[in-house]
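All the exercises in this workshop are built on plain-text protein records. There is nothing in a record beyond a sequence line and a structure line. A learned vocabulary of local backbone shapes supplies the integers on the structure line. The question running through the whole workshop is how a given chain folds. Here is such a record, shown just as it appears in the course material:

***
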Amino acid sequence: MKKKTFIKILAGAALFAAFTFPGCASCERDIKSCNSDVAGGLYRVVNIYTYDG
């Protein structure tokens, strides 16, 4: 019984997020950031030529 309740709550939260997040630019950036964190992101090399940047 608890498992079914948990699944219903999770499904409701997923539907709420699906209709709420796509319209928000800040939420889009957060989702993109989370996806990059999970996927490993981009490999970047930073070269500093002077001490003051």
User: Anything to note?
Assistant: The chain has one domain: 2-39. The chain is about 65% helix and 0% strand. The CA atoms of residues 10 and 16 lie 10 Å apart.
